[in-house]
Amino acid sequence: EADAPFRRRALPVYFISRETPREAKWTGKMDKSEAVMNYQTLERTIGHQFADIGLLDLADQLKYEKKHNISHRHLEGKSLGMIFQKTSTRTRVSFETGMYQLGGQALFLSNRDLQIGRGEPVQDTARVLSRYLDGIMIRTYEQKEVEDLANYGSIPIINGLTDFCHPCQVLADLMTIREKFAVLEGLKMCYIGDGNNMANSLIVGGLKTGMKVSIATPAEVMAFAEPNPNFFITDDPMKAAENADVVITDTWASMGQEAEKEVRMKAFQGYQVNDELLAAAKPGCMVQHCLPAYREQEITTKVFETKFSRKQKTACTHRRPLWLL
Ligand code: NVA
After folding, report:
1. Can you spell out the DSSP letters for 77-125?
2. How many contiguous H segments (helices) and E segments (strands) does the chain have?
3. For a tag on the chain, would you pick the N or C end, based on fewer CB atoms within 10 A?
4. Residue 254 CB–ligand 1 contact under 6 Å
5. Has residue 211 got a pLDDT over 90?
6. Do 16 and 167 contact (CB within 8 A), yes or no?
């Protein structure tokens, strides 16, 4: 272990908020005044998820140790329950393999298998799972369900995606960006597309780490607009992309929004990450996507296959659990 470049740190505990957010829901024709989620509200709701950005140092440390076959079984004897009310490829595999690498075990609990899927109140599930497990990762629709688990349970709860936010993904994005640029502070991060869970978490994660954040989303789907010198929201993708170091996008129709696909395809025309848009960003900018990606919709095949490198994709995939537990 002598050549490890980073000091070993105490493992952080990652608690979710006990506050309930106001959610801005897509109606198909939401206007700016209806959709009032200001940055203060957003920050208060999910800001703590990025409060200890030292998590990223720990992640670098663990990644280094993994690469050099240095054992780091910090979670030996611990069990993580993973509740999935929505589908998952990367989150499930990364948490499960992460737990294994850390010496613990992960239990995959789908909606179909849990009594929660048959209507058992979340407080009963929370109480009983708190006795068996050492932590729970949950991917679900409503943020409130995650909050309820935390309120009624007595073990750490990890948000593995809700309609409202996607903190684990954004921590992975920040880690990957920092690997390329060595710093985060002062970089410009631009997000093009739906004002969704990814947008919410990117705004908070980006601003918390000293980045400049610009968002381009159609006016009628703007979830919030609050003046902040480092924050810029517009309906013009080219303006948002100007001089960006990192360009990020996500699907136009998230999980649970399948029925709105048609209206969304129309609303997001012009919000594609393509060569023209990247010409406005800094030369050599980075392109990130949380996946799954829909080629020729939010991103062209060409940009996806060339700018969004394999290395970045695996980075997103494998690191998430390693710094969360
Ligand atoms: N916004 C997407 C993210 C998928 C990882 C969704 O919620 O489906």
Report:
1. T-EEEEEESS--SHHHHHHHHHHHHTT-EEEEEETTTSGGGGT--HHHH
2. 12, 9
3. N
4. yes
5. yes
6. no
Q: For residues 71-76, give the mean pLDDT.
A: 86
**Strand 105-110 versus strand 286-289 pairing type:** unpaired
Q: How crowded is the C-beta side of 284, counted as CA atoms within 13 Å?
A: 3
What pLDDT score does 3 carry?
Answer: 37
Closest CA to 185 of 157, 162, 213: 213
- Calculate how far, in angstroms, residue 73's C-alpha sits from the geometric centre of ligand 1: 31
Q: Does residue 199's CB lie within 6 angstroms of at least one atom of ligand 1?
A: no
| Listed residue (116, 105, 106) closest to 141, CA to CA | 116
Please report the atom of ligand 1 found closest to the CA of residue 256: 8
Whole-number Å distance, alpha carbon 65 to ligand 1 midpoint, is 30
pLDDT the model gives residue 307: 77
Ligand 1: centre distance to CA 265 (Å): 16
- Whole-model pTM: value is 0.83
What is the full DSSP assignment across 261-316?
Answer: HHHHHHHTTT--B-HHHHHHS-TT-EEEE-S---BTTTB-HHHHHHTS-HHHHHHH
Q: How far apart are CA 191 and CA 24, in angstroms?
A: 18
Question: Is residue 36 within a helix (H) or strand (E), and if so which, with residue range?
Answer: none
What's the token pair of residue 10?
């105490």
Kindly report the protein residue whose alpha carbon is nearest to atom 7 of ligand 1.
254
